[in-house]
Amino acid sequence: MRLNFDAAVTAWIMRLQGEKIQIIAQRLGTNTYRLGEVYREEDHPSSKQRAIDLLIS
């Protein structure tokens, strides 16, 4: 399943908090390939910054 923007932000938050990618994929109901698209910023490139903003606020 392709991630929407909110799920991409959640994936970034989980990754920045040190969660393993396989666990993130399982919790979000997707696969590691789709997460890779987000983490390589091919999909939802502004999601990383939004996650950082949420974590520091």
Q: Please, what is the oligomeric state?
A: single chain
Helix content: 55-70%
Largest sheet: none
| Relative strand content | under 5%
Q: What is the SS-derived class?
A: mainly alpha
Span of the ends, CA to CA: 30 Å
Shape: globular
Rg, alpha carbons: 10 Å
Average pLDDT for all residues: 97
Structural account:
The chain has 57 residues and is an all-alpha fold. The protein is built from four helices and no strands. The mean pLDDT is 97.
What's the gist of this structure?
This protein has helices at residues 5-16, 21-28, 32-39, 47-56. It is mainly alpha-helical and 57 residues long. The relative contact order is 0.25.
Main features:
57 residues, mainly alpha, 4 helices, 67% helix
